[in-house]
Amino acid sequence: MSIDSYNPADPSDLVIRVEAPGAAGTAAAVERARAAGAAWLGAGAAGRSAALGRAAAALEAHAEELAALVVREVGKPVAEARGEVARTVAIWRYYAQAPYAPAGELHEPAAGQGLLMTRRRPYGVAGLITPWNFPLAIPTWKAAPALAVGNTVVLKPAPEATACALRLAELAGLPEGVLTVVPGGAEEGAALVDAVDVVSFTGSTGVGRVVIAATAARGVPVQAEMGGLNAALVLPDADIEQAAAHLAAAIAGYAGQKCTATSRVIAVGAAHRPLREALAKALTATATGAPGEAETVCGPVISEAALHRLTGALDSAVAAGATVVAGGSRPERDGWYLEPTLLEDVPDGHPLLAEEFFGPLAVLVTAADLDEAIDLANSTRHSLATSVHSRDLDTALAAADRLEAGMIRVNAPSSGVDFHLPFSGAKSASYGSREQGQAVLDFFTSSRTVTLLPAGTSR
């Protein structure tokens, strides 16, 4: 079976066609990675650090090429594509120092002479399953820490991001078998989960639950990031114009195709009317166009199927009584485009209030006070990121304590991630350990307790 990846801004443009290896080919790739493991771990901290540093330098040297490929393959606006490349380089550099981090702790024994210590060791082969929306950064923030602590890696990217993943691995220039890309779909993903020693997944909730069940059956460690139905709370004392600008960026940036994008705007009390007007104005002014144009903020969605899902949800909401506050139309151009859209009066129980649709589409709801707003924000199982907009720091911090989300951002868009801090959601948005920062180094290693006693000691 071939894997075909097309340009979402020009559906006639075939970016890459490769053959999927199937289950047997995927298993063979894992065995090659396993065979490469001893030499990779044996390279020591200095060897692995130098290799990751060289990968960063090579990617930086090809930054414009990579940004152009991201624009072409996944339709990311060029300014964001360049930002992703820069972040990718920074992540490789950040984890290039991780091989020198402490690998355990030293303790005194309970009695007598000797030493007790813990030591963290790599699992072996890390299997990574990644989405298309950050085709360089997400594979990097999984692969780089896994490699830094001594694992080898087999990466199965989303089919829509195949060319980006292959070029990333090629430019990284790591030894044969240390970082392998397996193009493919569900068959290859399942085979990978069945063969590796530790799994890191980012993707849809449905697939994530299958991965979690499969790894649990094998007793294999897994972390899974499965998106979010993210809320933004705007209080009456907020800087409404600033909040509207932040929300428009979080709704429409990269056509809303971020797991941290805002999909529910909760206006508290008197904030409703001015926020409605300011946000409608900000979304209408958001530049929608070809992703290669410098001014574009909202480009195409990833596929025709994604566009139909979005327009179907929009049409059903309007048919049920919702009002279009801004946007709602398809621009007259080639590619899979939808204007940044804000709806109001969406009836309770509609899928737009319960599911992640991954597009430039958000719903405005009202709350009488902060308590009701927090209840609304917490009413989803997909709690990844929430933003709070208020001039009152005490109020914002009190809200942060009560919001059930993995990331809470005050007076900032819900979208946005700091790669040196833990990243994860709450409830059904995530499963297992945190990604990124130093926390992920623990995930990709197992802890062993070692007791050292003087020769001839009995206990």
Q: Low-confidence parts lasting 5 or more residues at pLDDT below 50?
A: none
Helix/strand class: alpha/beta
CATH topology of the largest domain: Aldehyde Dehydrogenase, Chain A, domain 1
Rg from Cα: 23 Å
Overall average pLDDT: 95
Q: How many helix segments? A: 14
Strands in their spatial order, largest beta sheet: 12-13-14-11-10-16-17
Total number of strands = 20
Strand content: 15-25%
Given the C-alpha coordinates, what overall shape results?
Answer: globular
- CATH structural architecture of the largest domain: 3-Layer(aba) Sandwich
Largest sheet: 7 strands, mixed
Say which CATH homologous superfamily of the largest domain is assigned: Aldehyde Dehydrogenase, Chain A, domain 1
Amount of helix: 25-40%
Can you identify the CATH class of the largest domain? Alpha Beta
Distance between the termini: 61 Å
Outline of the structure:
The protein has about 450 residues and is of the alpha/beta class.
Explain this structure.
The chain is of the alpha/beta class and 459 residues long. The protein has two domains: 2-226 and 429-452, Aldehyde Dehydrogenase, Chain A, domain 1 (3-Layer(aba) Sandwich), CATH 3.40.605.10; 230-410, Aldehyde Dehydrogenase, Chain A, domain 2, CATH 3.40.309. It is built from 14 helices and 20 strands. The strands form five sheets. Strands 12-13-14-11-10-16-17 form a seven-stranded mixed sheet, sandwiched between helices. A six-stranded mixed sheet has the order 7-6-5-8-9-19, sandwiched between helices. Helix 5 (137-148) links the parallel strand 5 and strand 6. Helix 3 crosses helix 4 (78-96) and helix 4 (78-96) runs parallel beside helix 5. The longest helix is centred in the first third of the chain and has 21 residues, at 22-42. The mean pLDDT is 95.
